[in-house]
Amino acid sequence: MAAPARADEALITAQGANALAIVDLDAGAVVGQIALDGAPAGIALSPDRKTAYVTRPEGPGLAVVDLVTRTVTTTLALPGGPLGIAVNPKTGLVYVADWYGSRVFVVPADGSRLETEFQVGASPSGIAVTPDGATILVANREGDSVSIVDAATLALKRTIPVGRHPFGLTLDAAGLRAYTANVTSNDVSVIDVAAGTEVGRVTTGERPYVVALAGNRGFVTDQYAGTVSVFNLQTLTNVAAIEVGDHPEGIAATRDGTGLVVANWGSNTLSLVDAGTLKVTKEIPVPDGPRSFGDFLR
Predict the structure, then answer these.
(1) Is-contact 228 213, C-beta < 8 A?
(2) Is pTM, for the whole model, over 0.85?
(3) Which of 87, 99, 79 is nearest to 151 (CA)?
(4) Residue among 266, 259, 274 nearest 245 (CA)
(5) What are phi and psi of 183, to 5 degrees?
(6) CB 210 within 8 A of CB 181
(7) Residues ≥6 apart with Cβ < 8 Å to 60
(8) Measured between alpha carbons, how far is 288 from 88 in angstroms, rounded to an integer?
C-alpha cells in the first residue's frame, strides 16, 4: 500500500531577508534560499505544485518561481500594494489582492502581464478559490466583509458582512465553508459559500490572522497572543490554545492532515504542531521575517 501523501517542504516568504526559503520539514532545516526583493509576503502554488507565485508589496509586484530549478522565471510590476494571492485550480489564473486599491488583479499562469482586474471591498487581503474554479472569495480587511465573485465573468455576486478586519480566508476541501480570521474582533467567521451567509462565529486569541483546517478542527494564528487557537469545526467551540513563536501569521496543514506548520514572523522560526496531540513537535530557524501568507506547503 502506498504511503499517504504529505507535505515535506515549506516555502517561506522571509520579508526581512528578501528571500523565499525552502525548508525540509523532516530534516528541520532550510535547504535552499531564493533572493526576492520587495519584501515578499503572500504565496500561492500552481495546481501541479511546481511553481510558486509570490507577492512583493514593496516592489510592488509579483515573482514567479520555478520550484524544480529553484529560480525566478518572471517578475511582473503591479500597481498598489499586492499582498494576498491565490491560484485558480482549474484555469491556473493567478489572483492578486491590491491592499491599497479595493481591487484584485488577474494574471496568467506564466506571470507575463496584468490581464485584467475586478473590484472588491476595501483593503482586500486573503483570497481563496473553490475547488471547481467557479467562485473567488476575497476578505476585505477595511470593509469588514467577504466578496464572492464569479470566476468566469468576474462579476460580484454577493458581499457578506463578517467580523472586524478579516485578513486570512480559508476554504474547506469541498469548497462548502469559508473561514475568515477577524483581526480586531478576535474571532473567526464561518461562511456558508452556497448560501452566501455567515453561519457562525468562534472566539480566538488576540489578533487572529490566518485559519488552517485539519481533521475536524480549525487552527488559527493569534498574532499578539503568540498562540494557535483550536476549535471544533462541527460545534464551533474552543478546544485549546497552543503556544508557538512570536507573532505567528502563516499557517497550513500538511497534506495528510496530521500536522500544522506555523510561520512565526517575530521570532524567525517555524513551529511544527501535531494536529492530534496539539503539541509543538519541532522549532525550525528560518530567515528574517517569515510570513508565508497563503498556500506554502508542497
Answers:
(1) no
(2) yes
(3) 87
(4) 266
(5) -65, -45
(6) yes
(7) 38, 77, 78, 79, 80, 81, 82
(8) 30
C-alpha cell at 256: 495528510
Cβ contact 171:180 at 8 Å:
no
CA 222 to chain centre: 14
The whole-angstrom separation of Cα 77 and Cα 5 is: 36
Q: How far is CA 108 from CA 115, 168, 266, in A?
A: 7, 23, 33
pLDDT per position as a tens digit, 122-164: 999 999 999 999 999 999 999 999 999 999 999 999 999 999 9
Query: How far is it, in rounded angstroms, from Cα 247 to Cα 26?
Result: 24
Cis peptide before 60 (omega within 30 of 0): yes
Joined grid coordinates for residue 39: 519584501
Give the cell for residue 46.
500552481
- Residue 48 neighbours by CB under 8 Å, 6+ apart: none
Name residue, grid cell 496539539. Answer: 278
Torsion 151-153-159-165 (CA) sign: positive
Nearest-10 Cα torsion for 86, 167, 214, 1: 20
CATH number, domain 91-294, options 3.20.20.10, 2.130.10.10, 3.40.50.620, 3.40.190.10 = 2.130.10.10
Q: Is the dihedral of CA 230, 125, 282, 227 positive or negative?
A: negative
CA distance 260 to 274: 7
pLDDT in tens, 87-110: 999 999 999 999 999 999 999 999
What CA–CA distances, in Å, run from 135 to 13, 80, 194?
26, 24, 10
Distance between CA atoms of residues 43 and 65, nearest Å: 10
Residue 220's nearest CA partner among 170, 150, 280 is 170
